[in-house]
Amino acid sequence: MITTAKRLDTVEEYYFSSKLREVRQLQSEGKSIINMGIGSPDLSPSKAVIEAVAAAILDENGHGYQSYQGLPELRKGMADFYQNQFGVELNPNNEILPLMGSKEGIMHISLAFLNEGDHVLIPNPGYPTYTSVTNLVGAVPVYYDLKEANAWEPDFEALEKLDLSKVKIMWLGYPHMPTGARGSLALFEKLVAFAKKHNILLVNDNPYSFVLNDNPMSLLQVDGAKEVALELNSLSKTFNMAGWRVGMVLGNSEIIDAVLKVKSNMDSGMFYGIQKGAVAALNCDKSWFEDQNKIYRRRRELTEKLAEKLGCEVYKEGVGLFVWAKLPEGIASAEKFIDEILYEKHIFITPGTIFGSNGEGYIRFSLCVKEEKVQEAIDRF
Q1: Distance, CA of 65 to chain centre
Q2: Residue 161, burial from CB neighbour count under 10 angstroms (0-12, 13-18, 19+)
Q3: Residue 351: in which H helix or E strand, if any?
Q4: Model pTM?
Q5: 339: which residues sit within 8 A by CB, 6+ positions away?
Q6: Under DSSP, is residue 154 helix (H, G, I), strand (E, B) or coil?
Q7: Shortest CA distance to 114 belongs to which of 152, 142, 85, 93?
Q8: pLDDT tens across 74-112, in order?
Q9: Residues 240, 146, 223, CA angle at the centre, nearest 5°?
């Protein structure tokens, strides 16, 4: 009998991978499921993106292996985007590395910097992949609390009381997933100072900046951030290109070079046509964001009505693709609560518990659902 690697004992199948099988089973039985669990944009990329890809497919030189570092014009487009949107200056030659989605960057960064037994600071609640990747590379997750009473921001007094001697990486992500907390430049300044004090690599996961957010920010806006920090970003949510798998990691050249050592051994470059489409997306003007947010704003208003109809208290300050809501008093289990709704009303909502213990008592709704479907969900109650 062939046995699996011991590292697989440290992780479970991704929640949505297993839960969506359950949802598909209900659909196969004829149930009309409204999926409000997944943050996969249902809107389309811009016309310019589609046209760029269509033209690239006809380019006879576009079907071979591509550079591990991506097309120069893609890196230039990413640099211009950061300059225009955040006022952050980056050298496109050595401070930007395109990725096949920012999720792979979590693995590449971890492989590049973590040895077995190193400690990793992970937000609770936070993106589950931070934990699973940390476990897969043999490092040790150390959770730091984010709580509503502190606006879902770190408690630095509590952080300083931890044993930080073995900490190598600290993961964060603002706007925060799952809560939608915005963060602030003042918070970023504290985090950069904390990372410098303790010689920690700070990594900000930043894919939600432009969704329902009137003040997009980057960790790299902080003076001196490049000395200790990387930022991950993605075209998935901003430009409705989730399935295209286009992301980026940004930071100083020495840190980027270390990530490239891993990445160049993991893939053989991104398809030329997808890169050309990404360049077109990054050149979208202000009207693109405005038009997208008009749609998401209407969806959020309806989704908040649904949450309130369930007796939940909505976190109104949240931005991004989700609505975060506190369960009614007396509800002991978020997972039991959402399962009852799934099986009785055929609506799939995400339980806060999958993001960590501090997610107990909360649920998350995705805004990647058309208005008429959200209204239908309301009507089912």
Answers
A1: 28
A2: exposed
A3: strand 350-351
A4: 0.93
A5: none
A6: strand
A7: 142
A8: 999 999 999 999 999 999 999 999 999 888 999 999 999
A9: 70
